[in-house]
Amino acid sequence: MRYDIAIVGSGPAGLSAAINGKIRNKNIIVFGTKELSGKVNKAPKINNYLGLPGLDGKALKEHFTEHIEKMGITITEERINNIYAMGDYFALMVNEKMYEASTVILATGVEFTRPIKGEEQFLGRGVGYCATCDAPLYKNKIVAVVGYNHEAAEEANYVSELASKVYFVPMYNGEKDLNDNIEIIKEKPIEVAGENLVNRLIFKDKEVKVDGVFFLKDSIAPNQLMPGLEVEGGHIKVDRTMATNIKGCFAAGDIVGKPYQYIKGAGEGLVAALSAVSYLEKLKKSN
């Protein structure tokens, strides 16, 4: 099945795009979490969202949830690891599963976790962002898993069934339900190092030899999510129609730049959806 519009992100920008795509009778799919945006939930008071003064984040989230439910929009709680432009459609990868869509709207928010030294340099040469995708490459090898969320522990357990040794580096607080053969390192990594391939992960007071390092984050940098995507100053570069440099791909919300405001994101989500609909109409006429 090929969707008309795939929306990656369930914050104000993504949900606004979903609502407006649905209004125009497009077949949409939204990837994200039913908790919607973590930043929305934590906001103590919001006074600049037109028509809804004085709400806290939790109340605004409830309005968002009620709206999408009335529109019959559901959230697909699966993490997109990579998106590839295939010409007349996009392939969205979730581990070993693939979704297809004629257009994509990226609304993933800002990647606040900056890469450490060597992380981007060794991407594809020992550094990865999806343990369940690439773990078979490290059978009987030594792997470090740097986890930024609770789901990372599950992926580390999977890797430990294949690798000869797994180090787990938790970057979050809370319990870690890990297999007995996983060694926890409670230090912050500062560098991924190696020659042609990764061979060690460096901490302030020590280093460990590894064949690969997985960084498991809530979201990854946009140009790593979609190869070839133009990024400027850490944000996706778009025009006034929210179009990126890749035909059929649009972006909205915090990921395209400041100000980081809910109402700005919602407005951009609308524009991105209208632009995607217009693009779909042009595709239809050309075929």
Structure description:
The radius of gyration is 20 Å and the shape is globular. Strands 1, 2, 3, 4, 5, 6 and 17 form a seven-stranded mixed sheet that branches. The protein has helices at residues 12-23, 38-42, 57-70, 131-134, 151-160, 222-225, 262-286; strands at residues 2-8, 28-31, 75-76, 82-85, 90-94, 97-106, 127-128, 142-147, 165-170, 182-184, 189-194, 198-203, 207-209, 212-216, 231-232, 235-236, 249-251. The longest helix is centred in the C-terminal third of the chain and has 25 residues, at 262-286. It is built from seven helices and 17 strands. A hairpin with a 3-residue loop joins strand 12 and strand 13. Helix 1 packs parallel to helix 7 (262-286). It is of the alpha/beta class. One of its GO terms (molecular function) is thioredoxin-disulfide reductase (NADPH) activity. Residues 3-268 form the FAD/NAD(P)-binding domain. Its EC number is 1.8.1.9.
| Secondary-structure element series | EHEHHEEEEEHEHEEEEEEHEEEH
User: Gyration radius, to the nearest Å?
Assistant: 20 Å
User: So what's the overall shape?
Assistant: globular
Total beta strands: 17
Q: Characterize the main sheet.
A: 7 strands, mixed
